[in-house]
């Protein structure tokens, strides 16, 4: 083992890690396991994106189940079918979007923006086409209750976003500022 083997290595996300134990930085002090970055595991960006996906999914599915129960009680199978369709569309829309964010979590900012905008545009077009088909052939779908679709859509979106915000507020994202150094002047005055 050479002296260079003990030196910190830089990972793809700019953090330094010791190859022997995978700890962030060069300190041997005990650290929180959430701060550890291993050289062969997913990056912290991927881990955070997965947590957001799981949290949003839990919130969305929870709201969907409540909506399914409510509209089944209110209108039987018609309410159930309408709520199920709305919940499936919202969960698909948000799930695919967050899965793409997980897949590209380590990409640069410009790439991430381009991918997320392309994904969003594609999902909106698909949703728009579904709504267009429904509006043009509404009489072919008498088993759907528009009020159940509307309320379920709002509930599942709110559930997804609420839990995702809660998860995001608990992510450990370090913020580091450097000490302010005023510009130097030629005569030494500030």
Describe this protein's structure.
The chain is built from three helices and two strands; from the N terminus they run ββααα. Residues 1-38 have low confidence and may be disordered. The N and C termini lie far apart (51 Å). The chain has helices at residues 44-103, 109-136, 146-169; strands spanning 9-10, 16-17. The chain is an all-alpha fold. Among the domains are: 43-74; 77-140, no CATH class; 144-174. It has a two-stranded antiparallel ribbon with strand order 1-2. Strand 1 (9-10) and strand 2 form a beta hairpin. This is ATP synthase protein I.
Write the layout of secondary structure elements.
Layout: E1 9-10, E2 16-17, H1 44-103, H2 109-136, H3 146-169
Antiparallel strand pairs: 1-2
Helix pairs in contact: 1-2, 1-3
Tags for this model:
190 residues; mainly alpha
Brief account:
The protein has helices at residues 44-103, 109-136, 146-169; strands spanning 9-10, 16-17.
């Amino acid at each position: 083992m050479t002296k260079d083997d003990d030196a910190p290595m830089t990972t793809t996300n700019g953090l330094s890690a010791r190859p022997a134990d995978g700890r962030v930085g060069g300190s041997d002090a005990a650290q929180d396991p959430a701060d550890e970055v291993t050289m062969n595991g997913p990056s912290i960006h991927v881990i955070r994106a997965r947590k957001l996906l799981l949290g949003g999914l839990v919130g969305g599915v929870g709201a969907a189940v409540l909506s399914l129960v409510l509209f089944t009680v209110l209108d039987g199978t018609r309410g159930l079918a309408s709520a199920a369709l709305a919940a499936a569309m919202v969960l698909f829309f948000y799930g695919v979007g967050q899965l793409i964010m997980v897949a590209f979590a380590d990409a640069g900012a410009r790439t991430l923006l381009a991918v997320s905008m392309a994904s969003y545009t594609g999902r909106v077009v698909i949703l728009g086409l579904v709504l267009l088909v429904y509006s043009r052939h509404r009489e072919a779908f008498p088993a759907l209750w528009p009020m159940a679709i509307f309320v379920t859509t709002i509930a599942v979106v709110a559930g997804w976003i609420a839990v995702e915000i809660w998860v995001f507020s608990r992510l450990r994202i370090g913020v580091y500022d450097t000490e302010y150094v005023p510009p130097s002047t030629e005569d030494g005055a500030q």
